[in-house]
Amino acid sequence: MSCTRLAASIFVALAFAAGPAAAQTASPPAQSQPAMPGSPAPLQPGDAFGEPVTLPPRTILYLKGHTNWDAAFETLVDAFKSLNEYLDKQGLKPNGPAMTIYTQTDDTGFQFEAAVPLAAAPANPPKGDIAVGQAPSGKALKFVHRGSYDAMDSTYEAITNYLEDKGLEAKDLFIEEYATDPVKSDPDKLVINVFVPVK
Fold first, then answer.
1. What is the CATH classification number for the domain harbouring 169?
2. Single pTM value for the model
3. Is residue 191 part of a domain?
4. Higher-confidence residue: 147 or 172?
5. In this structure, is residue 101 part of a structural domain?
6. Measuring CA to CA, which residue among 172, 157, 92 is closest to residue 125?
7. What is the pLDDT of residue 4?
8. Rounded Cα–Cα distance for residues 149 and 110 (Å)
């Protein structure tokens, strides 16, 4: 995988500034096509691709971080392990699937908040690297990715094309919500909901 290419495609999707080369990329993978190595798995019936949704306000427990693209998935898994350990020690239960909120990207890496939603803020707020806050809320577009994290390059290129085709402008962040647990699931069989907040 070209991590720089992935970074560029994500950045372009957020900034809505893709050039003509990106417009030549294919649309989302056809359901009838088999997955190629490094490609997303075919979408399943009912999988969203550009579905308008409204993200509700949610309290989250999160861990901020920064990493380069080559170590992206391993870094996120380590962050979720740290959050899970904290939840277990405090006797807290997640109130929904884990998520990554990408707050800044460039060609070398990205800043993120690895997060788990909670029903309510804990009585004793965490100290140190783990904090409590609010997840982004409001209007967004939902896209589904199936397959490995490395194969998300193609998914984000398809998202970029979708935004361009529809004349939509994204905000400067995006969210990955993990329908499959990134810590415990087969890394080649992930199901990830990508939410792109729109202006």
1. 3.20.80.10
2. 0.81
3. yes
4. 147
5. yes
6. 92
7. 41
8. 15
